[in-house]
Structure formats: C-alpha cells, structure tokens
Design a protein that fits this description.
It is a single chain. By secondary structure, the protein is α/β, with parallel strands linked by helices. The protein is about 40% helix and about 20% strand. It has eight helices and eleven strands. The strands form three sheets. A five-stranded parallel β-sheet has the order 2-1-3-4-5, sandwiched between helices. It has a four-stranded antiparallel β-sheet with strand order 6-7-8-9. Strands 10-11 form a two-stranded antiparallel ribbon. Helix 1 packs across helix 5 (about 105-115), helix 6 (about 150-160) packs across helix 7 and helix 6 packs across helix 8 (about 185-200).
C-alpha cells in the first residue's frame, strides 16, 4: 500500500497487535513521546497512532506539539488509549486528534479508521460501499445508489467514523451545523431515507440503531 504509520505506544504487546492489525502498511513503533520526536525528525509518516498514557511526556502533550509545528500540523493522528470517558474523548479531539479509539479495541475497527484517515484516494470505501465526495456519488461495485444531499452528508459522516455511536444531537451539529430546518426528529427521517437508499445493495444493515443513544455504522453487518 506504500503508506507509513507511526505507532507511539509503550506496551510491546499492544505495539505488536497494532502492527498486525495494519499488515500491508509500513509500521514503525516508538515507546515514548521523546522517541517519537526523534523518529519524526527523520521523516513524517502518513499517519500516527498515539497512546495517551506514555512514560514521561504524555500523548496529549505530544499531540499539542505536533499541532504547533508546521510539518506535522496536518498529520492525521488517531488516539488509541485506555482513557474512554466521554470527557477524555472530547478533550483528545479538542487537542487536535482526528479520531479517538478506546482500548480494548477491535483490530478490524482500527484498520477501518486508519483507512479513512489516510489520503488513499479522493473517496472512501468500507465493506464494498464507495463514496466519492467530488462527484457526490455512492456506489457498490458496479451499482450506483441514489442518495439525496442530506443522506449523502450523513453517510459521509458515518463512513468517516465507523463503529462510533453518534447521538442525534451530535449529528445535528456535526453534519448539518446551524441549519435550523433540521431537528432531532428530522435526523431519524434522514437515517430512514439513507437506509432505504442503501437497501438496493444490502448495505442498509450497516446503519444500526443504538437504543437510547443514537446511530452507528457497523462494519460487522
């Protein structure tokens, strides 16, 4: 695949698990923020997987340094950490992480999230479902799927963050921003329309309802 991924993680067993999950990529591991900085001085990878609880300088401190330094300001960073409280997730994203995964993690989910963050091609592809943001089109194999603009925006958000649970309130903010014409009931309607549009290819089952919480795109369906 030709992409370089740096893993900053102090536990050797987890380093090995991440490397195995990302077979096909060029994976280099560092056990501390200091070691990572030395490696980064030799060349910038395409993506960095970063633990929070590192010895010495924390992963968050390293992330802040990366975002303050021009060569790494736009480097995709996925936090992979045991800190899983909602406030931790929010804080990590606010500090500049592009995505956040809590341990223990699914190797398949990690690989999917890495694929989304890498500049692999203009569009996205998950489980055979292909989305092209330039042409605003969605397909599955040779089959084109007809999605309206609202459903396309919703699917793009789901595909960017697979396996993440999205509350209705979060979808309102992150997908439609300040559009006052969309409320939480309208979110349900648009999810239903998205499922209908994906039914032709069988991908509708990927959009799961999480009772009491919201929705997620599941890679196991």
């Amino acid at each position: 695949m030709g992409f370089k991924v740096m893993v900053v993680e102090d536990e050797a067993a987890i380093q090995e698990l991440i490397a195995a999950s990302l077979s096909g990529y060029e994976v280099r591991c560092a056990g501390s923020a200091e070691a990572a900085l030395l490696m980064l001085a030799q060349g910038t990878p395409d993506l960095l997987v970063l633990d929070w609880g590192l010895p010495g300088q924390s992963g968050i401190d390293l992330l802040r340094r990366l975002r303050a330094h021009a060569p790494t300001r736009s480097l995709p960073v996925i936090m992979l950490t045991a800190r899983s409280q909602p406030q931790d997730v929010v804080f990590g994203l606010e500090c500049g992480a592009d995505d956040y995964i809590a341990k223990p993690f699914s190797p398949r989910e990690l690989r999917a999230r890495v694929q989304v963050q890498l500049p692999r091609k203009p569009g996205m592809e998950l489980n055979g479902l292909q989305l092209d943001p330039d042409s605003q089109s969605v397909s599955a194999g040779e089959q084109d799927l007809a999605l309206g603009p609202a459903e396309f925006s919703l699917l793009r958000h789901f595909m960017r963050y697979p396996e993440r649970i999205h509350t209705r309130a979060a979808l309102l903010t992150q997908v439609w921003g300040n559009d006052s014409s969309v409320n939480e009931r309208a979110v349900d309607t648009r999810v239903r329309r998205l499922r209908q549009a994906l039914q032709a290819s069988g991908h509708h089952a990927m959009i799961e309802t999480v009772r009491g919480d919201g929705y997620r795109l599941s890679l196991t369906r």
